[in-house]
Amino acid sequence: THYPVRFKQFVVVVGAPNSYVGTLQSDGSVSSWKAGPGTVSQDSTARRVIIDTNRIYSIGGADATGAIEMARIDAKGNLSAWNAVTALPVPINDPQAMVLNSQLFVFGGEGPGGDTSISRDVRQAPILADGTLGAWQLVGQLLQPRPHSAVLSYNNTTHLVSGGVNSYLTNSVESARSDLLGAPGANYFSG
After folding, report:
1. Is the peptide bond before 17 cis (omega within 30 degrees of 0)?
2. Cα–Cα distance between 149 and 5 in angstroms, integer?
3. Per-residue DSSP letters for 147-181?
4. pLDDT tens for residues 148-163?
């Protein structure tokens, strides 16, 4: 699975051995695809890809490591080389992630055992001025494990929607006040 991200008028599809950057047109189409540097990790499936300003983060993957890589995109749509940043302390694939207040949050996912090792963990790392990450902290637990879920934040509320894999599926929604994410206390999500 490849997750695209948008930066200004560009769409970036992260992968290995190449990532690709396309230009969004006024009619909604994407044109002028060009190859850019691929991630160091050659297994580009089951990652979560997010963007913070002009920095793109590739998180985890089906190779079940906690690896995180970061590249920059410039105003002309050129990608820098990918570099490793502080890895998660546990192997993870198909998590959900978001950036909030210069913090990278990773929600749920699954470990090397696939649907036998699904996660409820909420982890947080500060994004440093150079785009690298500080130390990871376990800052809470979801009400239910959530690999393959969706996350969105609106009006100071973060929602995790659905999720699951093979033997475990949920169509529920969990919500938390965005300003409480990472605050002391373990269970701040409600169903």
Report:
1. yes
2. 16
3. TT-EEEEETTEEEEEEEEETTEEEEEEEEEEGGGT
4. 788 888 888 888 777 7
